[in-house]
Request: fold
Amino acid sequence: MARVNLPTNLFGGCFMEIEIRECSSLENLGKAFSPISHYFGGDPSSEEMTRIEQVFDYRRAIYASENGLSVGGAAAHAYELTVPGGTVPAAGITIVGVKPTHRRRGILRQLMQKQLDQVRAWNEPVAFLWASEETIYGRFGYGMASLNGSFQVPNTANDFAQPFRSRGEIRILSLEDAYEPISQLYDRIRLEHPGMYSRTENWWKLRRMFEPPERKGPGNELNRAVLFIDGKPEGYALYRVNTTFEGAHNEGHLQVVEALASTADATAEIWRFLLDIDWVPRVKVDFAAVDHPLLFLLARPRQMKLVVGDALWVRLVDVEQALKARRIGDGDPVVLGIRDAFCPSNEGCYRVGNGTVERTSDAADISLDVSAMGSVYLGGFSFQELARARRVEEITEGALVRADALFPSDRAPWCPEIF
Reply:
């Protein structure tokens, strides 16, 4: 438990003492949830809280307490995060919030410090999150690491650019029947895509593939479709059909929650199925990779109206171990000079090259903040891109080009959901 001494308020009185506490039981997990719940219409119902308790590990949640009242909270899921060339134990940061009655009192900073200390103690070299506001987390060492796309395909422009003939079978399954083929497919696919992460059985059954009773209604029924080719599951789609009639015309849409496949042919097939569903004027996707296959599958990709925004933000909690977890190229070494005011133990120089990473006393070839290192880590952005934005300084001529060669990535990082 950490105590925070806070300043005098505007009316001359002293604020109550703030204590940063770890959740010690399921019963007080709600104290970590309460601050962020304020911004989403109130605390979860008892039924929702029961599901939350089965997905969250209460021991990885903290809250800020003032006179027994919870005024701030944060938590971290334990994930295996895919990075270029491998995976790394990582903390998925979530439910971070401070009640509006206690903003600008240093509580968020204390929560972030306590949480990063925990993550380091758990031997998780990386933390990552979806930022509620892009101005918040940079000061705690997080850097924008991936992009996310949203688009919609009208049924008047859903033809493929090249002829395609289906040879598989689509089955719409119950949650119990869908769990095994879908979760197994996901685990095969996620290992090939930086930014994706592991999911537990409870995560699938109580969150990703679950339809809460309170959401039942038109447009909320979750469908679980699995593509079988030669009797083997090769793709799946989670989707909802939102039917809204105006007169005799359906003005609704089909919302794709998640659609993945193991091969290029299976990818084309699962999307052909989704685009061909009857009575649907358009297909919408909110969490899409920026290198989505539909950009080249469709004959008229301009009609997708692709919109791109920031997605994952990454923080290297232990720089050396985080870099060792991802693929490093065989090129000539570069010395990275890392600044980290929030976690000073990371500050220093790191020699990266010839497939290895080590601390060094040598002078830096490139100087950068740990947040910029987070932006490069998953392969979503390059050292040269960041240098053009004045986020990285090249000290030794040619070091940026050499560094980019040392941090290869086969595809754009992508995370299919907010956690």
In short: Residues 149-309 form a domain with the Aminopeptidase fold (CATH 3.40.630.30).
